[in-house]
Amino acid sequence: MKAVQADDRSQMNVLDAEECRVLLRWEIVGRLGVSIPDRAPSIVPVNFVMDNDTVVFRTAKGEKYDHLVGHPVSLEVDRFDWYRRIGWSVLVQGVAEECTEAEVAGLELSPWAPGDKPSVIRIVPNAITGRRIELTTPATDPRGYR
Amino acid sequence: MNSMAARSISEVLDQDECLELLAREPVGRLALSAGALPVVLPVNFTLVDRTIVFASAAGLKLDAAQRGVVACMEVDGYDRWSHGGWSVLATGRLQEISDPEQLARARRLPLSPWALANPDHYVQLPIELLSGRRINRLVHGGAA
């Protein structure tokens, strides 16, 4: 981890890829970002699982699907503690591919949202980046230990 | 595998509900296209009427604002046990706030750009399109 920005209260650290992968394996909902030509990009929450180092989820054949397969997409996960103003976020960027049911047999992929979601999508990451904002450790006051 | 899907229902949120949820959440995710690549970044924002306002340092977000890029902000909440949740998506054109009066107002907003001691810039996203939905899981699955 490397500090990129800091003030007297908190600092922002860059997470390495392995730390990002650990965080990704813990999360079950991410936000899928898709670019749509001549329009605003779209974000939709999806429940996903990690399969080795790839992101896998189900989707329906719709507008989202058309801008997904064969295109660069992003998946973001984060956790923030608003009270302490600390948290972390991880961004996976890669190209989405459709995969077969056989490839993902045994993965827990039941979609939370209603409707038929017959397509299984895999994002093979080109880049996994993350950041964490944490409180700086204050100088220890020895009186606290008497 | 779709047995679980059959036991959830999706409802569309009305505009007032969407605004209420946006006003309540301190953190949203901003989606931008950088080149043709979509990027999703968490942002601490506040809602002023129908405009999203946030602080920004030099970088991707500020560049996008200076170019007046169309972007969207998403907020959501979910429950990992019931598999229910909601999400709201607000779309508009990013703008850097440069008018001195507006800037002074932005500086007084309860914004805490995390790990950013003195924000140099403020960006706004006047909402043009707003939509949201909620997914409820039916516990016994018999309602359908």
Structural summary, described in words:
The complex is a heterodimer of chains A (146) and B (144). With 146 residues, chain A is mainly beta. Helix content of chain A is 10%, strand content 50%. Chain A is built from 2 helices and 9 strands, in the order E-E-H-E-E-E-E-H-E-E-E. Chain A has helices at 17-26, 63-66, and strands spanning 2-6, 10-15, 29-34, 42-47, 49-51, 54-59, 72-81, 86-99, 119-135. In chain A, strands 1, 2, 3, 4, 5, 6, 7, 8 and 9 form a 9-stranded antiparallel β-sheet that branches. In chain A, a hairpin with a 7-residue loop joins strand 3 (29-34) and strand 4. The longest helix of chain A is centred in the first third of the chain and has 10 residues, at 17-26. Chain A starts with a strand and ends in an 11-residue tail after the last strand. By secondary structure, chain B is an alpha+beta fold. Helix content of chain B is 18%, strand content 49%. The two termini of chain B are 17 Å apart. The interface between A and B is large, with 45 and 44 residues.
Q: What is this structure, in a nutshell?
A:
With 146 residues, chain A is mainly beta.
**Largest interface pair:** A-B, 45 and 44 residues
**What series of H and E elements makes up the topology of chain A?**
EEHEEEEHEEE
Cα distance, first to last residue of chain B?
17 Å
Biggest sheet record of chain B = 6 strands, antiparallel, barrel
The value of Rg of chain A in angstroms is 19 Å
- Beta-strand percent range of chain A: over 45%
Helix coverage percent of chain B = 10-25%
Name the average pLDDT of chain B.
87
Chain-wise SSE layout:
The complex is a heterodimer of chains A (146) and B (144).
Chain A: E1 2-6, E2 10-15, H1 17-26, E3 29-34, E4 42-47, E5 49-51, E6 54-59, H2 63-66, E7 72-81, E8 86-99, E9 119-135
Antiparallel strand pairs in A: 1-2, 2-9, 3-4, 3-7, 5-6, 6-9, 7-8, 8-9
Chain B: E1 8-12, H1 15-24, E2 27-34, E3 37-48, E4 51-56, H2 60-67, E5 70-79, E6 84-93, E7 95-96, H3 100-107, E8 121-137
Antiparallel strand pairs in B: 1-8, 2-3, 2-5, 3-4, 4-8, 5-6, 6-8, 7-8
